Amino acid sequence: MLRERGRFNPARYFVEEVISGFDETDLYKTWVRTSAMRSPQERNTRLENMSWRIWNLARKKKQIEGEEASRSSKKRLEREKARRDAAADLSEDLSDGEKGEHINESSIHAESTRGHMPRIGSTDAIDVWANQHKDKKLYIVLVSIHGLIRGENMELGRDSDTGGQVKYVVELARALGETPGVYRVDLLTRQISAPDVDWSYGEPTEMLSPRNSDNLGDDMGESSGAYIVRIPFGPREKYIPKEQLWPHIQEFVDGALVHIMQMSKVLGEQVGNGQPVWPVVIHGHYADAGDSAALLSGALNVPMVFTGHSLGRDKLEQLLKQGRQTRDEVNATYKIMRRIEAEELCLDASEIVITSTRQEIDKQWGLYNGFDVIMERKLRARIKRGVSCYGREMPRMIPIPPGMEFSHIVPHDVDLDSEEANEVGSDSPDPPVWADIMRFFSNPRKPMILALARPDPKKNITTLVKAFGEHHELRNLANLTLIMGNRDVIDEMSSTNGAVLTSVLKLIDKYDLYGQVAYPKHHKQSEVPDIYRLAARTKGVFINCAYIEPFGLTLIEVLDNGILVDPHNQNDIAEALYRLVSDKQLWAKCRQNGLDNIHRFSWPEHCKNYLSRVGTLKSRHPRWQKSDDATEVSETDSPGDSLRDIHDISLNLKISLDSEKSGSMSKYGRSSTSDRRNLEDAVQKFSEAVSAGTKDESGEKAGATTGSNKWPSLRRRKHIVVIAVDSVQDADLVQIIKNIFQASNKEKSSGALGFVLSTSRAASEIHPLLTSGGIEITDFDAFICSSGSDLCYPSSNSEDMLSPAELPFMIDLDYHSQIQYRWGGEGLRKTLIRWAAEKNSESGKEAVVEDDECSSTYCISFKVKNTEAVPPVKDLRKTMRIQALRCHVLYSHDGSKLNFIPVLASRSQALRYLYIRWGVELSNMTVVVGESGDTDYEGLLGGVQKTIILKGSFNSAPNQLHAARNYSLEDVVSFDKPGIASVDGYAPDILKSALQQFGALQG
């Protein structure tokens, strides 16, 4: 060894090579501990071993940096190529002045509130705006599902999930509930009945008492106001961190759907003249709630708004820069890839994304495939000019600074230069929290530097303590107060928070800061204003030195009431603090600027801006509500809603087509592509015309033509079995269907049990498949076709068929109106044809070709002839998103088929539509699946429905369809939940036992 030859000094190597190139607090701690050893030989050996270990860490960090640089370079090239491809389409119709990237920057920054936001400090401005909106009766749904949320005594800082976001959403809900024009606000979160949390988190509903009742009208009904509504999902008696909530998202969505449906009916009776009052918007907060809001938005056909608060890609970059963990290790800890995919979905589904600052748009959302500043600028210009965007869509990024709760704040007008202004004591009794803080100080009269943040590494508290401890002039002039959440015993805190707090205590000891630093164990949310008031009373300074602060609650730069510093620069932090506490004139100027500008950030102003944006969104409520009769349809009568219209459309269209060309549609699915698409477009237009017609006329026609029909029979079923087995051959699927019918023959005959076939196959493929096995179409109540892009019902009446010669199906056109949001249509198809041509050219032969027979208005289908030549789903989704094309990409048939359908369409969403449209309870559904399936397989396993997994050799061998996803199946599905059962084989007795277990069959 080099040490034995006298050429290696481990101590010098450690200091010169390792410490200088790998500056981490942990290394310093290890160095101090090792240096304290008495034995020189043991110390030298320990240092040598530690040096090599840290050298490996440094080498690993460089390797990670290289891999990330390569990944970033590849991503940049992909984005540039996609941008060029999109520019080829988007430049066709624009004039020379509009092409390229020369559109005025003000168009993209028009929504920025900095420097343009009007103050509403006067009551006149508030009253004028209130009078303009007082007659509206809006229903708003907010979603925030992690952390501990309650209206009073919020336990902020208790853990990393209960932080500023909790305060934000509660105050937003309360403020919206007080805003004129808003009738009800529901903040949906998780119901927690765990023994280690307060009982209040288990209450199903909590009303948020208004802070200001002046704006509340006299006509507010019994259900008006703002409420926290807690939905039970996930482990019933266990409080779990947000990273473990992902497998339970669909269960939350189903529970939230039930609440919203019930509340819409209640509000309809109160303020809707008997018609349901649907939410005007569903607003998700953070990635998990955004994922939930996207599914709710798609199921209800209601506009979605999203606020990220903290973004996964930005956090991933920060963690990788630290070099402590690889990408896989970060993902294992934080489920970061699942979070990022949820945020990408939010970009796909949201009409508006609300941010706190401009920086969040440019520097953080710009990291995502689904958002590009330049593309957004071009699309906005085209929309303003009424020019086609060729199916491309981009959410609007709107910066709206968060509000502030002023009810607890009482400004004190004192002479800043008087002795009284700097006296801690006064004639009035001091708040109790002041004594809790001042007991730490040997001289409590000194100005107080205040930091209020939970002990999280990204809050950078240790750097603040170092800056304070190493600046002797600052230590002599000021005290430091650290409000780091609430704690009882450090060892009982989470490992991350406990480590930060332990580091702070050791730094206090290292710099001998006793008597100069306060770190109380507890504080109440209601005491926070008093804490700030104490800092102001001592002419102190508030500091936020967090590495990342997109939320904007404490970092409000527009106020011009402080000094901006680099959180990584310890010296800059110390010098800025020293300037503020030592320069009385600068302190007074910053204080006055804050008082002058703070009203820009009131909650009434935030709500006014928020509602003015929401008011621009196009209403997309369920379409059938416009034409349905007010009377409820009985079980024995024909439905009299959208399917009546479908019958009329089909009949009239058939007559029209037959009179023009009797043989043009001899076989549905085998006609020419243009004829089929013309037919579908005509059906869609005709359905819209029928829906716009009078109720009486449509009711008369329906009564005359469908009086003998019993469908949709789904309404009369007590239980529904959904057959969604994708991983078997056609012969096995037919036999599975037969065995399920045999196992449930009694309930099937009595009409208590209904059946739905859910598949990636097109309607033209389903019919021959079933008839080949001797199965009647009418044995099923509904068919979810083309991966969820079509919903059909069986019909025994030949006059009901779109194609009477072969397909006895009735297409639910209202379902199409539910899923058509952001569908790219022909623009998307042209892009996909170009993409397929590129893949064929790269492989030198036909790798992927369009499947005309299986394509439809809302499904563009391809046959994959060479699976090695086509990318996995995650790469295809990325390609579509980079080009601002919003769609749901799925592989099926073991990768031999590729479907592109609307972004919010899926087989699981189709089941939710059956609940919304026909009242089929999701909890009364049992879904039968194989061991694997299409790439939407995971969506069929979640939710409140029961699931039976058929295991056995009849399943197709595992392939790369699911192995290539961004995250593991366990990140999105909880296989240990009570509603999932696995069985071996599909024999009738096995199926019967499984169905009996879930109550579908009687025992």
Under CATH, the topology of the domain at 105-399 can be stated as Rossmann fold
Order of strands across the biggest sheet?
Answer: 3-4-2-1-5-6-7-8
Percent range for β-strand residues: 5-15%
The overall pLDDT, averaged over residues, is 81
C-alpha Rg (nearest Å): 32 Å
Q: Specify the biggest β-sheet.
A: 8 strands, mixed
Poorly predicted regions? 1-5, 12-23, 95-123, 419-425, 551-555, 626-672, 690-710, 798-805
Given this structure, which CATH class of the domain at 105-399 is correct?
Alpha Beta
Q: Shape from CA axes?
A: globular
Distance between the termini: 76 Å
The CATH architecture classification of the domain at 105-399 is 3-Layer(aba) Sandwich
What count of helical segments does DSSP give?
33
- DSSP strand count: 24
Alpha-beta content class = alpha/beta
The helix content, as a percent range, equals: 40-55%
**CATH homologous superfamily identity of the domain at 105-399:** Glycogen Phosphorylase B
Protein name: Sucrose-phosphate synthase
Catalytic activity: beta-D-fructose 6-phosphate + UDP-alpha-D-glucose = sucrose 6(F)-phosphate + UDP + H(+)
Pathway: Glycan biosynthesis; sucrose biosynthesis; sucrose from D-fructose 6-phosphate and UDP-alpha-D-glucose: step 1/2
Family: Belongs to the glycosyltransferase 1 family.
